[in-house]
Amino acid sequence: MEKDPERFPGFDAAVASAMTDEVERYFDAIVFDQGGTFADLFTAPLGFVNAVTAPYYGLDPDAFGDELEPVDLDPDQRPGFLTRLGFLAAFSSRELTSPILRGAFIEVGVLGVDIPADPGDGPIPPPDLDPRRDESRARGGANLGAR
């Protein structure tokens, strides 16, 4: 998991590793430790946070050490594994967040639905003339660390 350092300052190997480890710990806790259901994977507000990942969740990094600790996150903001940092970062590009990649994973990987190939005969969309698009995308990427 590699991110553009200009768009995602502070995102380094330690952050990527902690995010990946959190997803693994999340699944282990829900499935094996708690005997949770498939639905619980999508709804449990459990997170595993350390000083490195705390700022991404809007938590005080000084309240955490180097090891990931279980934390109850806000269930309105962070229900289930689809809101875990590791999932969000893994299903985005190096430069931008990507709801499309995440949606495609859910369609194919979770729901088992095949996404048909583009037939190639659709209309060509007009060029994007909104000069605020890049600014908006930059803000969206910068917000990764704001939570």
From TrEMBL:
What InterPro entries does the database record attribute to this sequence?
A: DUF1592
What the entry lists under Pfam families is as follows:
PSD4
Q: Residue ranges of region Disordered? A: 116-147
Basic and acidic residues compositional bias, start-end: 129-138
Q: What is the source species?
A: uncultured Methylococcus sp
Its domain of life reads Bacteria
Ranges for domain DUF1592: 1-59
Q: What is the official name of this protein in its record?
A: CAZy families CBM2 protein
Where does this protein have coiled-coil stretches? none
